[in-house]
TrEMBL record:
PANTHER family: ATP7, ISOFORM B, CATION-TRANSPORTING P-TYPE ATPASE-RELATED. It comes from Algimonas arctica. This is Nitrogen fixation protein FixI. It is found in: Cell membrane. The keyword Cytoplasm does not apply. The keyword Transport applies. PROSITE patterns: ATPASE_E1_E2, HMA_2. It holds the Pfam family Hydrolase. Belongs to the cation transport ATPase (P-type) (TC 3.A.3) family. Type IB subfamily. GO terms for molecular function: ATP binding; ATP hydrolysis activity; copper ion binding; P-type divalent copper transporter activity. One of its GO terms (biological process) is copper ion homeostasis.
């Protein structure tokens, strides 16, 4: 190892973690081998790889110096490993893409020239002399052999790395097919035979490189979402030291309790709370709202949001690796590589590929010899079997669909958190909604239309001395008055002196002059008649449209809430949801979902609060708003950005479409092999035709996956400038 990985290890208590970039991992079989190999190591608690970005996350109990040992384990498996540094990883990806493009261009150049010579041989027929034919074959060899050696390096290097590690991968039979085709053609040329297969060898190399280039583009497109989020992360922060100096440090060094200064126009480096300063914040990353929000002492701020206005001083509550933006980025990356049932099926097929293909090729060779065929014929048919059985179509069947689906959802403000979320989301038949903060805005609003403006100013001044939700609802009303001698009676209300008036705010019994059984919030100024303040939690503006869309998708709906029956029933009536359950504890929500599941009904739970977490984790699929609690986001399969439910019907639509595309792709890949393999075994397919057929199957599967880009016409919320960045990214790709 040339780089000591211990310096890149993050520690939290006795848990160490490290992100590595892996070289040589090409398929789901490689991914399973890497993850399972590391998980089998002592004290390793997590090994999760994103095949699209080649990023491996490893966590373990113990010292940081074990990192080099994990890298050695990966090398023993046949994979290279180095520290994952986003900028360096992106540069390496671009360099690799350039190498693939150069190799593909060289293969295309050689193929065109060899095909011209081959056409001359075919068209010459019996009229061409043996000497001329031999000359053309030798010219083909002079072109094909060096180009096959140059352009085939990605396959040869991968195969050699696997063989050195005493294992195999899909590049082993591919390399064998290229070498055998070139070797047989050279032998045929030496023997003065009529036919050679230099064109087939170069065709195979070229078409496989086309697949690798497309795969690289798909990987780049998949990683685009994560890179866009990474671009929002701050690399440096200005931290205040114990002796009141300001030092610039990498955000990775920030720890809870640190004090940082954020100037106007800068992004918040990590999650924290304002301790001094008042400003306006662009929090569209969290809320989807483009309007700036007022922030001041005591307000919580999330990483990635932008300070517009005066400088702010923050106390950091979370390290950058555990921040809101890091959490969202991790969700995107987790969604790009799934381990769903279909993926596991494809992985098992890919792992069985090498022994099955080698056995088929060997049996084809032996079978033709037993049947009386010449060694030359037996070798040609065995090579055709090696080429035509390349599992590119099967390997692309699931990832190609998921890459497009996850990218489509991200562009519309829907983040996939768990690996098999798309598959499970496609099966749901019933949706359970929490009420407060999910179907409603979760912010109490006060109706003060019946209260005179002078009285409202006095009441608002008193309310500012409490953080109770009912008092907070009155903070928005302007007042120039100040409250003195304020006393808050727990569970009752506030009282104090405001501009020479005795003002009370709270329950009816507390303010006096009102029947004790009158509910709601009341205020009283001096000895005047009490004033009633109507409080309500308004229904979300998009809730009705979301409910209608879900019902149109043949889903049944219900509301399960801990609120009072009358409040929950009012929301149900307003939205047209008949199945309503009120006054339930968190454990009872879980029981409600279990009852539906026991009846064979897959359930989608939608919530946002701490009390929803058990139900979110227990449901077949779950969704949370990005503005919900951290625990609710962590327990959910998908996260809806922009603080809106509007993306939920679209997510279900995309999930169902993705399931159909995966099944179609499996059918196409299996059908291709069932038709093509027998033809190759019985000698009806030449190596050239085999290369064309293999490429065509992969292209069909990829084009079928790209149909996902046209699913739905929903135009939902997105990050500021996100759609523009995605358009630029697509143009660059």
């Amino acid at each position: 190892m040339t780089v000591a990985l211990a310096s890149f290890v993050r520690t939290s208590g006795d848990v160490s973690s490290l992100d590595l970039v892996i070289g040589g991992a090409r398929c789901g079989g490689c991914l399973a081998k890497i993850e399972n190999g590391l998980r089998s190591q002592p004290d390793v608690t997590e090994a999760r790889m994103n095949l699209s970005t080649a990023r491996l996350h490893v966590a373990w109990h113990g010292a940081a110096d074990r990192a080099d040992g994990f890298a050695q384990n990966l090398q023993d498996m046949g994979f290279s490993a180095g520290p994952y540094i986003p900028d360096i990883a992106d540069a390496a990806d671009r360099a690799q893409s350039r190498k693939l493009l150069l190799a593909m261009a060289a293969a295309a150049f050689g193929l065109m020239n060899v095909m011209i010579l081959s056409i001359a041989v075919w068209s010459g027929g019996s009229e061409m002399s043996a000497a001329t034919q031999s000359l053309l074959h030798w010219l083909s060899a002079a072109i094909a052999l060096p180009i096959a050696a140059f352009s085939g390096r990605p396959f040869f290097a991968s195969a050699w790395q696997a063989l050195r590690a005493k294992t195999t991968n899909m590049d082993v039979p591919i390399s064998l097919a290229i070498i055998l085709a070139c070797g047989l053609s050279l032998w045929e040329t030496w023997q003065g035979q009529e036919h050679t297969y230099f064109d087939a060898a170069l065709m195979l190399v070229f078409l496989l490189l086309v697949g690798r280039v497309l795969d690289a583009r798909l990987r780049a497109r998949t990683g685009l979402a994560a890179r866009q989020l990474a671009a929002l992360q701050v690399h440096n922060a200005r931290r205040i030291t114990d002796d009141n100096r300001v030092e610039t440090v990498p955000t990775t060094e920030l720890a809870p309790g640190d004090i940082v200064v954020v100037a106007s126009g800068e992004r918040i480096p990590a999650d924290g709370v304002v301790i001094s300063g008042e400003s306006r914040l662009d929090a569209a990353l969290v809320t989807g709202e483009t309007a700036l929000q007022k922030v001041g002492p005591g307000d919580a701020l999330y990483s990635g949001t932008i300070n517009h206005g005066a400088p702010l001083t923050l106390e950091i509550h979370k390290a950058s690796a555990d921040s809101f933006l890091a959490d969202i980025t991790a969700m995107v990356e987790a969604g790009q590589q799934t381990q769903a049932r279909y993926v596991r099926l494809a992985d098992r097929a890919a792992r069985a590929y090498v022994p099955v293909v080698h056995s088929l090729a060997l049996l084809t060779f032996v079978g033709w010899l037993i049947a009386g065929g010449t060694p030359r014929t037996a070798i040609i048919n065995a090579i055709a079997v090696l080429i035509i059985t390349c599992p590119c179509a099967l390997g692309l069947a699931v990832p190609a669909v998921q890459v497009v689906a996850v990218g489509r959802l991200f562009a519309k403000g829907v983040l996939i958190r768990s690996g098999d979320a798309l598959e499970r989301l496609a099966t749901v038949r019933h949706v359970v909604f929490d009420k407060t903060g999910t179907l409603t805005q979760g912010r109490i609003r006060a109706d003060v239309s019946a209260i005179p403006a002078p009285d409202l100013a006095l009441i608002s001044a008193l309310s500012r001395h409490s953080t109770h939700p009912a008092s907070v609802a009155l903070h928005e009303f302007e007042t120039a008055a100040s409250a003195l001698e304020v006393e808050e009676v727990s569970g009752q209300g506030l009282r104090g002196q405001v501009s020479g008036h005795a003002v009370r705010l709270g329950q009816a019994r507390f303010v006096g002059g009102v029947s004790f059984d009158r509910p709601g919030l009341w205020a009283r100024i001096d000895a005047q008649d009490p004033l009633q303040i109507i409080l309500a939690d308004p229904i979300r503006g998009e809730a009705q449209e979301t409910v209608n869309a879900l019902r149109a998708a043949n889903l049944t709906l219900s509301i399960v809430s801990g609120d009072a029956a009358e409040t929950v029933e009012n929301v149900g009536d307003a939205l047209g949801i008949d199945q309503v359950t009120a006054r339930v504890e968190p454990a009872e929500k879980l029981t409600h979902i279990s009852a539906l599941q026991n009846r064979g009904i897959p359930v989608l739970m939608v919530g946002d609060g701490l009390n929803d977490a058990p139900a979110l984790a227990h449901a077949d699929a779950s969704a949370a708003l990005v503005s919900g609690t951290e625990i609710s986001r962590a327990a959910s399969d998908i996260v809806l950005q922009g603080d809106t439910l509007a993306g939920l019907p679209f997510a279900i639509q995309v999930a169902r479409a993705a399931k159909r595309r995966v099944v179609e792709n499996f059918a196409l890949a299996i059908g291709y092999n069932m038709l093509a393999v027998p033809l190759a075994i019985f000698g009806y397919v030449t190596p050239l035709i085999a290369a064309l057929a293999m490429s065509a199957s992969s292209l069909i599967v990829t084009l079928n996956a790209l149909r996902m880009r046209r699913v739905g016409d929903y135009e939902g919320p997105s990050h500021p400038g996100q759609n523009e960045r995605i358009k630029k990214g697509k143009a660059a790709l």
